[in-house]
Amino acid sequence: MRAVMQRLTYANVVATLALFLALGGGAVWAAGKIGSKGLKANAVTAGKIKRNAVTNAKIRGNAVTAAKIKAGAVDFAKLAPGTNLLATASGGPVPANGTPPIDVPLAGTATFTPAAGSVAFLSVEAKGDSLGRVGEKDCEPQVVTFVNGSEWDVAEGRLRLRAFAPTPEQPTGLVPVTGSTAPIGLTSPGVTQTVTVKVFGDPACSASSAVSVAIAVTQAK
Predict the structure, then answer these.
(1) What is the mean pLDDT of residues 138-167?
(2) Is 53 helix (H, G, I), strand (E, B) or coil?
(3) What SS3 state is found at 59?
(4) CB 79, CB 211: distance < 8 Å
(5) Distance CA 169, CA 152 (A)
(6) Predicted model pTM
(7) SS3 for 46?
(8) CA distances (Å), 37 to each of 41, 45, 60, 61, in order?
(9) What is the pLDDT of residues 77-91, one digit of tens each?
């Protein structure tokens, strides 16, 4: 130790400090001066980026376009809930024994505009509340969906709820829920579609019988 101390001079100390300052200062200078233009193309690969280092806040707005996303990379499981939901509304209950047909006031969004190249589906569900019969006849109210004022006809026909005499096969004597789903707007891209619903009541239903309705438009592509 004494031998080392004897060899220390002012010049040695100054030179050593200068070396450390040069090395440290160079690193700081490099960190502040090297930008995206100073990097070779494809120099920063996925393997060189720390996990979770790139957050939403670090991505420039509109920087990630459809052309930059690998085909099939984003499926519905990776989308936030409700992302593919274009419209949803519900209404009721309204009487199931009323005549003439009763408009169901829908609360929510019952209008959407289909885009060219996309596929949208309209789903309608009807639910009977306290369905019952007055006499021996079946109680069978019908739910009819309209799009832009025209009846939206599906393969199953009108939606029908039922209250009937129980059988061994159907001991509850009820069909309390029914629904349908089909494409909408495929032939009318850019044309606004407005969904409305009517209930065609059945006098054979009891006064307490009622119907509620919910609709949803979802995007499949």
Answers:
(1) 91
(2) coil
(3) coil
(4) no
(5) 32
(6) 0.65
(7) helix
(8) 9, 16, 17, 20
(9) 555 555 588 999 999
Of the candidate ranges 22-26, 154-158, 187-191, the one whose mean pLDDT is the lowest: 22-26
The pair of three-digit structure tokens given for residue 62, joined into one six-digit string: 């509109």
- Strand, helix or coil for residue 4: helix
DSSP state of 37: G
The pLDDT of residue 153 is 84
Q: Which two tokens stand for residue 21?
A: 């300052």
| Res. 141 pLDDT band, cuts 50 70 90 | very high
Residue 198: which H helix or E strand, with range? strand 193-200
Domains defined for the chain, CATH in brackets:
2-68 (no CATH), 80-219 (2.60.120)
Least Cα distance to 212 among 110, 101, 95 occurs for 95
Amino acid at residue number 81: P
CB 96 within 8 Å of CB 139: yes
Residue 169 has which token pair? 């096969």
Q: Which two tokens stand for residue 24?
A: 């440290």
